[in-house]
Design brief:
This protein has five helices and 39 strands. The chain has a twelve-stranded mixed sheet, covered by helices on one side. A ten-stranded parallel sheet has the order 8-11-14-17-20-25-28-31-34-37, with no helix packed on it.
């Protein structure tokens, strides 16, 4: 990545919170996240411990390394390389083409809506009646915001974000492109017990009679607390009654589905492709890795982790780490998986043992039949 201009290592250290190991006056003009392909003029980032053996052959002008690593190249030393990278990128990131303060001529803002100081409403946006938007919040082009919505200060809504009626959004919330907040929860009922209900209760006599699904009104809301970020095309449904809540500092990745009445705690990470069914509860700092799924009314305790593609059918205890479908503690799952790989071999052995037992039984039976003959 090209830098806006040449920077000395000392200048970068001041921004990144790094310590200059040597060569503070050395200047670089690019950042290379691939030390193997770095060249003259680059600051190479050695974040992956697996790459450290190649440090001696690195052709970069300077390197950024973790504490405890030695090199003869000009270098910066950091405790947390990813944090240093975040600080560097924040300092040099280009300006995003989001809305400028004021209301674009093509936007439609209801006369009863209230806009705080410095609010920016971009092209082709719609802001509904009695909606309140806090100071310095930026609403990108094509965003649709319903009525009775409360939005805090310093929020950023990127292009095409959708916010339904009566949603409550805190300060510094980010909605990425196409995020959908407040669609109706998926709730239906039938006048008579449905075939699904009958089957779940063990009843086999089913009916072909018409029994339509009747919509249950979804009259609750969604609450996004401060510093929440919702990824592109993620969906958070409003509650049937009450609120679907995303706690302070939690980050929701792209293409995540969070159903009605679920409650997400503080500083959780919900990764792409995850689906959380209705009325689930996540404690604080929970991690749901990519393509995980949670059965309705399931709970995860504080600091628990569901690894990729885990299917949660039961609660997870505080600090638990689970894997697989149905999800098991990771150690148990790996042991089961290791045994599963041996099943073909075990099956062959069992078949062989069965044949040997049959032969042995046949042999014993023949001996028993021969014994009386010899006695005569």
């Amino acid at each position: 990545m090209d830098l806006p201009k040449e920077f000395s290592l000392a200048e970068i250290a001041a921004v990144a919170g790094a310590r200059v190991g040597s060569g503070g006056d050395t200047k670089v003009k690019r950042i290379s996240v691939s030390p193997v392909h770095a060249s003259e003029g680059d600051l190479a980032l050695f974040f992956d411990p697996k790459l450290l053996p190649s440090l001696a052959e690195c052709k970069a002008t300077a390197v950024l390394i973790p504490e405890g690593v030695e090199t003869k190249l000009p270098h910066l030393v950091v405790k947390r390389p990813q944090l240093a990278l975040a600080r560097m990128l924040a300092a040099v990131q280009p300006k995003r083409f989001i809305a400028e303060p004021g209301v674009h001529p093509t936007a439609i803002v209801h006369s009863t809506a209230e806009l705080g100081e410095g609010v920016a409403i971009g092209p082709l946006c719609v802001v509904g009646p009695k909606t309140k938007i806090g100071a310095r919040t930026q609403i990108g082009s094509g965003c649709l915001i319903g009525g009775g919505v409360q939005i805090g200060e310093d929020c950023t809504f990127h292009q095409g974000a959708l916010v339904a009626d009566y949603i409550k959004i805190g300060n510094r919330v980010i909605l990425q492109q196409g995020a959908s907040i407040g669609a109706d929860g998926f709730g239906y009922v039938t006048e008579r017990p449905s075939n699904l209900e009958l089957r779940m209760n063990g009843i086999k006599e089913l009916s072909n009679d018409v029994n339509p699904h009747l919509k249950i009104p979804q009259i609750g809301i969604v609450v996004l607390e401060d510093d929440v970020e919702v990824g592109s095309n993620a969906t958070i449904d409003r509650a049937t009654i009450g609120a679907t809540t995303i706690g302070t500092g939690s980050k929701i990745d792209n293409l995540v589905m969070i159903a009605h009445n679920s409650r997400i705690g503080r500083e959780c990470l919900v990764i792409a492709g995850t689906a959380i069914a209705g009325s689930c509860v996540l404690g604080d700092r929970v991690v749901l890795a990519g393509q995980s799924g949670m059965k309705d009314h399931t709970r995860m305790g504080n600091d628990s982790i569901a690894q990729g593609q885990a299917g949660l059918m039961h609660d997870v205890e505080e600090g638990g780490v689970v894997l697989g479908t149905p999800a098991l503690p990771t150690r148990d799952f790996m042991e089961s998986f290791a045994l599963t790989k041996k099943l073909p071999q075990m099956s062959r052995k069992m078949k062989d043992m069965q044949k040997r037992i049959e032969q042995l039984e046949k042999s014993l039976l023949e001996r028993q039949l021969e014994t009386p003959t010899k006695a005569k």
